[in-house]
Amino acid sequence: MSTPTDLPSGLVTFVFTDIEGSTRLAQLLGPGYRPVLREHRRLLRRTLASTEGAELLTEGDSFFIAFSDAAAALTACLTAQLALTGHDWPSPESAPRVRMGLHTGYAEPRDGEYASPEVHRAARVAAAAHGGQVLCSAATARHADPLPAGASLLDLGLHRLRGFDDRERLFQLVAPGLERQFPRPRTADAVAHNLPTQVTTFIGREAERAELDRLMRQHRLVTVLGAGGAGKTRLAVELAACVVESYPDGLWFVDIATVTDPGLVAFAVAAVLGLRPEPGRPMVDTLVEYATDRRMLIVLDTCDAQPAASAELISRLLAGGGGVRVLATSRESFGLPGEVVWRIPPLSVDPRPDGAQSDAVALLLDRTVAARGGRQPHPAEEADLWRVVQRLDGLPLAIELAAARLRVLSAGQLAERLDDVLGTLDAGRDDPTPPPVEGDWSGNQEDTVDLVAAATGASPPTPATRAVRRSAAERHLTMQATVTWSYRTLGPRAARLLRWLSVFAGPVDLATVQWLLDDDPLDPLSVLVDKSMLLAEPSAAGSTYRMLDPIRAYAARRLAEAGEERTARDRHVAWSTHALERAHLGPDGRPVTLSLYALDPLAGELRAALRWCATGGSARAGLRLAGGLDQWWRERGLAREGRLWLFRLYGRIAETGEVIPEAELAAAYHLHSLHAGADGELAEELRFSQRAEAAARQAGEAGLLARVLAGRAAPLVDMGQFVEAERVCREVIDWAHEQGVMGDALFAVFSLAELLWQRGALDEAAELLGAARPIEAARPVERGRRSVDMLLGMVALARGDLVAAHEHLLVALRSRLSHGFHGRACDTVDAIAVRCAAGGDPLTAARLFGAAQATRASMRCTPGIHDAYWSQRQAEVRGRLGDGAFDAAYQEGSELSLEEAAALALRVEHPDLAADSTRFTTPAPPVAP
């Protein structure tokens, strides 16, 4: 091998190598890693000794070599890989997997080194490779002649190297004896994942991460078990973030705690994967088929929220394909074949052997600094901080709560309180009666021990076991005990407020707390914030108050024990109904244009209220809530969830015999029909449309009957019966006009306009829509959709009037997006894509088509009557651009959010501003539907 001073110049081929996963290999082998590393270096140097390569740098497990000949460099890499593969390593696990990357470019050495971007490009090529793989750039591929005997270069396509703006075509060296199958290169086109971004630092857990990583590499299903607040989710996310590149088909995080019904577990996973339901096919079958040939990791969090449904889904996924792995967090195991159960331990409370602080103290210090506004604890508090974490036994959530308390207490004061609570929670005290405290605590020490046993999953302690528990220092505080301690210190008003706030699913503001109590809440609210039972989150609009889930569960249990659950939950339903009504009104109490964004923050609370209505409350109130979310379900891609809530409410009606007025039943059935149509369930759509009509006729309300009848065309359109649908629309419109309820028949007007547009009756469609404009403008629930402008834009497209089309469609898009009608905004983006294609901008058209389809797919909604039209227009754009250019632009668009796609559409130049505008000369050719 040449010396570093004898460096090639001119056209130089640079080679970088390193061991893939060297850190993990070192952890695995321990002292045995050094001999492996030494042997790896010897083999590489021996194989490179016969070449003209100049070794510039060897650091750790990395080599950097320069060659004057590209073919010689590739030959050297092939020889080195074969030597590594054929070597007799101590064990299969200890064999190093070396990745190699080559790039060729012009460079001149100075002072024994190269200062050239070509070096950095070569390093990035190597970083894109996997262990055992040899990658080279297109420049190396061009100059590598001849290739080694029997070798060839496999074109892997264009990739964007990290740190470079352009795309580099990469090639893989293929030869007998080399592994051929690898995941896609590790380039800036990142591996797909949706791991949540953490806002706080992750402290400690090195040993636990290494152990869990080892289990994940050896087993396909690993379940992390632990009590609430043990840190299961955070550890799982941190581990997953370290292995994301090991799964070429993605790493996907799904929080089961957000799933409101067992039947929606598979849909939650499918939504994360970007899959849509297939009509007539169970969602789990679609998931299994998708996962069969893929290598991916699914992180299922909080599976104890839906244990049976989670277990069934995991079993099907693992049986369906060998490349799927599942990392689950739960409070109970699934009992599935092949499941490895790993219990998360508390954070270490003892100092490390090197004298460094323990993980538990490090976490408490980090969170205390944040709680105290960036101020470090006083050095005199260190001993008391250690006492705190010792008494909390290293439970992360308990430490988080303790740090929040340190906002108002010193570490010594907190330690004293924890000492006291350990004594009072000790079930083996001679005096079983706790000291009197404020609040409505009525239990004794044995009750508390039973609560602790329940929280940890243990059996209730026997009297003999209780006697052993005399030493408080031997016992640890679970989250149940921690919250019990806090609860016991509350006065009657604060304790009642905590119980009643447990019915809320998310943060609440001061007005909501006051509404709930019908009293000034400031005093009890301050107590709960000071005792960290509630988290105060200040903002410019005012503080909100959030309860941690373990505390909410505890408070809900206390609510039921106090006999207050029905009253509190009915009060929450009333609040939810009031909040839903307020979302439709302005500050002056008068109706305003409906914005679905006003409903988004209420979704969690409305689901909680619906759950109570369907299980223990009033189904009639539940139907009212579901109706208030009418358009929101569909515009957020949640039509299936809306249907499931309605089914549950029907079951509640059957269970209780609650009398529901026919008018309210008709409205619910009509809503159900619309949801079913959006979800592709045509038979269900027609069935509930018929039920809605029957109930509406019984009710005898003309406006209600007009709304229901106006929806009858939808199932006919979905079934392709366009002539019959048009007849129905005309009959409904004529009848509504006679009854003076045309506003309630707007859906029929829009359906008829679409049918007329489809068969080319453009003048009649335009006249119909013109007459509908003032009716739409007078209805706050409909006017934000701007359906008149959308359809007039479609008519203008069909006429070839790009100016009118442009103006109508942009008005519709602005309104739909600004009022939260995301599903309908997708249609408008598609229409603007057609306008771009007709105006000579096929690239923008392809991008917008891709964006609309991606958003629609993520929302699991159908394009409806326009489906064939969009497809035809896309095919025309593809024909104009060619497959390659169209696919690239379409893919670029699919990566845009709906807001970004809308911004792109709104930037489209007005036809009159274009240099070649023909508005006042030759009309553009019609764009027929």
General description of the model:
By secondary structure, this protein is of the alpha/beta class. It folds into 6 domains: 10-174, Nucleotide cyclase, GGDEF domain (Alpha-Beta Plaits, 2-Layer Sandwich); 206-343, P-loop containing nucleotide triphosphate hydrolases (Rossmann fold, 3-Layer(aba) Sandwich); 359-488, no CATH class; 490-563, Winged helix-like DNA-binding domain superfamily/Winged helix DNA-binding domain (Arc Repressor Mutant, subunit A, Orthogonal Bundle); 565-660, no CATH class; 784-913. The chain has 41 helices and 17 strands. The strands form 4 sheets. It has a 7-stranded mixed sheet with strand order 2-3-1-4-7-9-8, sandwiched between helices. The protein has a 5-stranded parallel sheet with strand order 11-12-13-10-14, sandwiched between helices. A hairpin with a 2-residue loop joins strand 2 and strand 3 (62-67). The N and C termini lie far apart (71 Å). One of its GO terms (biological process) is intracellular signal transduction.
Topology:
Blueprint: E1 10-19, H1 22-29, H2 33-49, E2 54-59, E3 62-67, H3 70-86, E4 98-107, E5 109-110, E6 113-114, H4 117-128, E7 134-137, H5 138-143, E8 152-160, E9 167-174, H6 206-218, E10 221-225, H7 232-242, E11 251-255, H8 265-273, H9 283-291, E12 296-301, H10 307-320, E13 324-330, E14 339-343, H11 359-371, H12 382-391, H13 396-405, H14 411-425, H15 445-456, H16 463-468, H17 479-488, H18 492-501, E15 508-509, H19 510-517, H20 522-530, E16 535-537, E17 544-546, H21 549-561, H22 565-582, H23 603-615, H24 619-628, H25 630-635, H26 639-656, H27 662-678, H28 682-699, H29 702-710, H30 713-718, H31 722-739, H32 746-758, H33 762-777, H34 780-783, H35 787-799, H36 802-818, H37 822-838, H38 842-859, H39 867-881, H40 883-894, H41 898-906
Parallel strand pairs: 4-7, 10-13, 10-14, 11-12, 12-13
Antiparallel strand pairs: 1-3, 1-4, 2-3, 5-6, 7-9, 8-9, 15-17, 16-17
